[in-house]
Amino acid sequence: MRTAIVMPRNMHFCQSRATSIDLCAHDLALHSQNKSNLRIFAGGEEDLFDDIDVVAVTEPGKKPTPAKFYDPLSEFGPQLIVVHQHLETAFQIITDFPGTPVILHRHGRFERNSAFKRWKYTRKMNRLAGIIWLVKMPAITFAKTSPA
């Protein structure tokens, strides 16, 4: 199964500036049984990880907006897309690739406390094929505070 992993804004999928989210995604991809059918899509950096299949969607130093992922993802033709951390990017990809399952990989809690914002996020999250919670407590909190 061709799987795309999307590393949105504020992530540096490179050896010199990797965040904990980048390192988690890198390790999961590097040790995946599906490694030969997996591609990472990230913002351009000078020293992107080179031990897995990575495509830069921007020039070095530019932030990868959700729209920047469209052409490279279309070329790859993924059967599954995993977006790390950023719901807005996941939601845009769901809109751009109807019929392709999109999973959000969350590394922390949502900081949306008002009932309206929880409702708004829940509506978007209901369109996801799934959510992977890296940490258990945010998943429990989200389940308790979000409308069904």
Describe this structure in words.
The chain is an alpha/beta fold. Helix content is 33%, strand content 18%. The chain is built from five helices and six strands, in the order βαββαβαβαβα. It has helices at residues 20-30, 70-76, 87-96, 115-125, 136-145, and strands spanning 3-6, 38-42, 54-56, 80-84, 102-106, 130-133. A six-stranded parallel sheet has the order 3-2-1-4-5-6, with helices on both faces.
Describe the secondary-structure layout.
Elements: E1 3-6, H1 20-30, E2 38-42, E3 54-56, H2 70-76, E4 80-84, H3 87-96, E5 102-106, H4 115-125, E6 130-133, H5 136-145
Parallel strand pairs: 1-2, 1-4, 2-3, 4-5, 5-6
- Beta strand %: 15-25%
In round numbers, the mean pLDDT is 87
Helical segment count? 5
How many beta-strand segments? 6
**Mass-distribution shape:** globular
Which residue ranges are poorly predicted, with pLDDT under 50 across at least 5 consecutive positions?
none
Main sheet: strands, sense, barrel: 6 strands, parallel
Q: Pairing-aware structural class of the strands and helices?
A: alpha/beta
Order of helices and strands: EHEEHEHEHEH
From the N-terminal CA to the C-terminal CA, the straight-line distance is 31 Å
Rg over CA atoms = 15 Å
Q: Approximately how much helix is present in the residues?
A: 25-40%
What is the strand arrangement across the widest sheet? 3-2-1-4-5-6
